[in-house]
Amino acid sequence: MAPRIRLALGVLCAGFLCAFQMPFRQYPGMEYSAFPLPPDYQEKTEFVLARLMYPPHPLGMFGMGWGDWHHGRTSWTNDYPRADRHFVSAVRRLTRVDVRSVEQPVNLHDDDDVFNWPFLYEEGGAMALSESQISKLRDYLNRGGFLVLDDSWGTRQSRLLDEVLGKIMPGHEVVEIANVDPVFHTVFDLDNRGPIPGQWSLGGRPYLNDGYEPHWRGMYDDQGRLKVAIWLNVDTGDSWEWADDPQYPERYSALGIRIGVNHIIYAMTH
pLDDT at residue 65 above 80? Predict the structure, then answer.
């Protein structure tokens, strides 16, 4: 096939896929009812940070919003959208990835839309996914999607996450990610990962529930590729959200941003 024909077909296929993506949408968050849009928010890019919308587990995080999760203001909007916007601006500065300036909220109920977004970020505690959502997320991961679970704290939330992950990926264990794993060395060498407490820790206590020690856990496929990353007992979202706050320690934001960058590059190259 001639190069010009291949190029034309590639452009046609890209346009075909974009035509079926859900458009950008913004919901009210738990902390922000409205947030200004950057001037280039409609720009087409090679990477978009997708944020998973989900029904919260009743035994997950208490006091994490009320109402219908389809419309925001529940746990999936924790730190949203300020954390997302700050993080993608850092990705733009620190890498050559062409990343969109705004996030993409993704609802598993929206037909096959999740398959348009290969990197999926979840924050705010345990999920109460329906059987159809579990099936859709399993299919997403089996097709090569990558899922990050952030900002869960302590034994109870860890157990609830393990339960739903066992349904999503039956037969695959949640394990501690070894320091030598490429996900910690794609861009930055992160052998010495420390705690990342949230902005709330400025009041004194640097952990929530009984989440004293940070853990970097994951689930691998049969070929040894990391498919699910679990950032337990850390508030990476807060480290992005408050990166421009002089009262929040810079070392936490620097580590949180580097961890996020490494996971994006890993997901795009493995």
Answer: no
